[in-house]
Amino acid sequence: MPRIRSSKRSQIPPEGYDKIEPTITKLLAKLKAAQTKSMKSEDKHNSLWPIIQINHQISRYVYTIYYKKKLISKELYEYLLKQKYVDGDLIAKWKKTGYENLCCVQCIVTKEKNHGNTCICRVPKATLIKNNQEEKVECITCGCKGCSSAD
């Protein structure tokens, strides 16, 4: 007989979830509103930017309270990963040297770029300065204005 599948969100959250629940709930509501708005928008790239940025914000919040401030338990962190509240791949990159400020994982995937390189937002701003004028750089994938750790 096949197993009965339960809802992903039906699991009881670990101890300490009630402390971060208001912030997570507020950010998830903001994400849902951005998703609804992006469906109505015509421009494909620009409509996804708010979704990616809010996803980054949620992941950065959990990363900070787990790795930097050590305010939540490992069980709660793994629960948030399992429930897909946060982007585990992005958090894994933030732990590596040189990727501390990474905006999204798509910016470092070289297969999707025209010249087989990383995104323009990953280039340090010092190398983009021409004739003492800073060129405005904006990633077409997520709208980032520069996430290189060398800045």
UniProtKB/TrEMBL annotation:
Keywords carried by this UniProt record: Nucleus
Keyword set includes Thylakoid: no
A GO biological-process term: mRNA splicing, via spliceosome
Top-rank taxon, per record: Eukaryota
Annotated GO CC locations: spliceosomal complex
Principal location listed in the UniProt entry: nucleus
Family: Belongs to the BUD31 (G10) family.
Name used for this protein in its record: Pre-mRNA-splicing factor Bud31p
Species this protein is from: [Candida] railenensis
